[in-house]
Amino acid sequence: MSHSQESAEVVALQAVAWMAGNEEMLPVFLGATGASEADMRAGVGDPAFLGALLDFIMMDDAWVTAFCDAQGLPYDAPMRARMALPGGGDVHWT
């Protein structure tokens, strides 16, 4: 089941809220990306930023699990949402 861009953005906005409220993850995200909290606030309207946030969460299965458990989402929701956002199409290496 694929996401529309609108439903993908809803999942990504849930990820922003989860990240912003996570005292352990937020500094890791900000430090790794160089983003500030102001950048996060500005990024909520940017589908490319939302996709990048999902990319970050998907770097670690424990982060995916924690996010999905907190939001009541299936574990493949971040990946499906990411695929519907700019730059998230299937990558074909050959």
Q: Give the strand content.
A: under 5%
Estimated structural class: mainly alpha
Give the proportion of residues in helices: 55-70%
Q: What is the chain-wise order of helices and strands?
A: HHHHHH
Number of strands: 0
Summarize the structure.
The chain has 94 residues and is mostly helical. The protein has helices spanning 5-20, 25-33, 37-43, 47-57, 61-71, 77-84.
Descriptive report:
- This protein is mainly alpha-helical and 94 residues long.
- Helices cover 66% and strands 0% of the residues.
- It has six helices and no strands.
- Helix 1 packs across helix 4, helix 1 packs across helix 6 (77-84) and helix 4 (47-57) runs antiparallel to helix 6 (77-84).
- It is globular, with a radius of gyration of 12 Å.
- 24% of the residues are buried.
- The mean pLDDT is 89.
Give the tags.
94 residues, 6 helices, mainly alpha
Topology, please?
Layout: H1 5-20, H2 25-33, H3 37-43, H4 47-57, H5 61-71, H6 77-84
